[in-house]
Amino acid sequence: MAQTTPVHPVDEVPPVRQLAAFGLQHVLAMYAGAVAVPLIVGGAMKLSPADLAYLITADLLVCGIATLIQCIGFWRFGVRLPIMQGCTFAAVSPMVLIGTTGGGLPAIYGSVIVAGLAIMLLAPVFGRLLRFFPPLVTGTVILIIGVSLLPVAGNWVAGGVGSADFGAPRNIALAVLVLAVVLGVQRFAPAFLSRIAVLIGIAVGLAVAVPFGFTDFGGVGDADWVGISTPFHFGAPTFEFSAIASMLVVALVTMTETTGDLIAVGEMTDRKVEPRSLADGLRADGLSTVLGGVFNTFPYTAYAQNVGLVGLTRVRSRWVVATAGGILVLLGLLPKLGAVVAAVPAPVLGGAGLVMFGTVAASGLRTLTQVDFKGNNNLTVVAVSVAMGVLPVGVPTLYEKFPDWFQTVMNSGISAGCLTAIVLNLLFNHLPGKARSAAPDPDGLAGGGVEEAVGKPREEVV
User: Fold this and answer.
1) What is this structure's pTM?
2) Which of 113, 139, 426, 452, by CA, is between 20 and 30 Å from 178?
3) What separation in angstroms does the CA of 201 have from each of 16, 184, 197, 362?
4) pLDDT of the residue at 444
5) Neighbour-count burial of 439, counting CB atoms closer than 10 A to its CB (0-12 exposed, 13-18 middle, 19+ buried)
6) What's the CA gap between 96 and 404, in Å, rounded?
7) How high is the pLDDT of residue 340?
């Protein structure tokens, strides 16, 4: 009998009903973050409600297309892993500055297009840097991603930043209910239901929220049934040097963040990210960012909250996330559907977010278990990197007196922590340093600090 080659879990195609349920779960996990960027930028520029709605539908459409490119891929575009794409928050401050100081949306889109082209050109360079991301660095970065996202979940739990009842006990109670449902389904429900625990928790939370007045579906009636984004809706792009320079810094930051996310998903799905696949994933980011500039939206990157969902549900199929991308395309073309999803209250998302973002941090800890911490300085690398990553999260105004380019890099806890981990790993484990004893220590490890001991299990080192 002919033997069939086993299919890797990443390439498995679940039944249609599971694809739909798992895909919708991913959409709900990232929706609030996806629409936040156009809302913030458009609000700062005092755009009309109609223009704001247009920005949101354009964003959802390109989010879906970017996700499909990343998951399914073509030629040398797409990492072909379960990665959701969305607008990066690293670009918010520079875009607000560009949009409100005379350049307007055309200057934003011109700089976004140039940044996307730069990402595509630099993708192979980042691919060759993968050797500087041993488990010591990747585990630290994944841990920082999870920890830096927890305040986002906390704001959702309290009702959402700027809400009139922020921190009200009923908001926190609703979030706790959703959290309890997610944990209960994971613990006691059959295998299939446990994999959509987040979706069930959100559904139960929404069912409770409606009669208690947590949400308003009035916007659904006002939304159009069909809306199509046209290229350069706000005018032809303009290319201003200062705008392009600031967006190129954002491009480097998003490439660093995306590298961490791709490596994290590779760890979770047991399909390691190689230099070529990393370059393909970054190249897809660049293409999506160019499309964003053409179709009236913003730079794109991998969404860390969905990385946590992959780890939590243990559903590793990229076709699940591709289905989520298809749902986002529908939401972008059918604004009325998007309005329904937008009506999910923040505390409901917060209860689910606590589990998802905590899962990302826990995955980082799991990766760090592969690292040897005896007789070397690896603990220092982790400690300082986590500290640098958490600083801008805990003290958002820490770097406000520094130049804009410095704030763009360091105000993102993910990029600050990632860059610190890379530099410290180079300092302690790659560059020549003080002489170390070649004699093995009591655990059988040579001296410590050599690169072989950074990321290999003890048996391989010996």
Assistant:
1) 0.69
2) 139
3) 21, 9, 6, 21
4) 37
5) exposed
6) 12
7) 66
How confident is the chain (462 residues) per 10-residue block, as mean pLDDT?
Answer: 68 86 83 72 72 82 93 89 84 76 83 92 84 81 79 82 81 90 85 76 85 71 71 86 78 80 85 88 93 89 78 83 91 73 77 78 82 87 92 85 78 80 88 53 40 39 32
179 vs 205: CA distance, rounded Å:
9
Supply 310's token pair: 């992959």
Position 93 scores a pLDDT of 66
Contact 197, 185 (CB under 8 A): yes
Distances (CA, A) of 276 to 40, 218, 257, 273, 300: 35, 48, 17, 8, 20
Which residues are 250's β-sheet partners? none
Q: How many Cα atoms within 13 Å fall on the side-chain side of residue 210? A: 10
Tokens of 414: 């993910």
Q: What per-residue confidence (pLDDT) applies to 68?
A: 94
Helix count and strand count (H, E) for the chain: 20, 2
Please write down the HEC assignment for all residues of 196-241. CHHHHHHHHHHHHHCCCCCCCCHHHHHCCCCCCCCCCCCCCCCCCH
Burial of 455 (0-12, 13-18, 19+ CB in 10 A): buried
Rounded to 10°, the helix 49-72/275-294 angle is: 160
| Eight-class DSSP state of 321 | H
- Contact (CB, 8 A) for 67 and 84: yes
Main-chain dihedrals φ then ψ at residue 440, nearest 5 degrees: -70, 145
Q: From residue 427, give the alpha-carbon distance in Å to each of 132, 372, 423.
A: 11, 17, 6
CA-wise closest residue to 93 among 304, 250, 238? 250
For residue 321, give every residue at least 6 positions away whose Cβ sits within 8 Å of its Cβ, in sequence order, or none.
23, 26, 67, 71, 82, 83, 84, 306
Residue spans of beta strands (DSSP E) within 351-391? none
Residues 454 and 450: their CA atoms lie apart, in Å, by 7
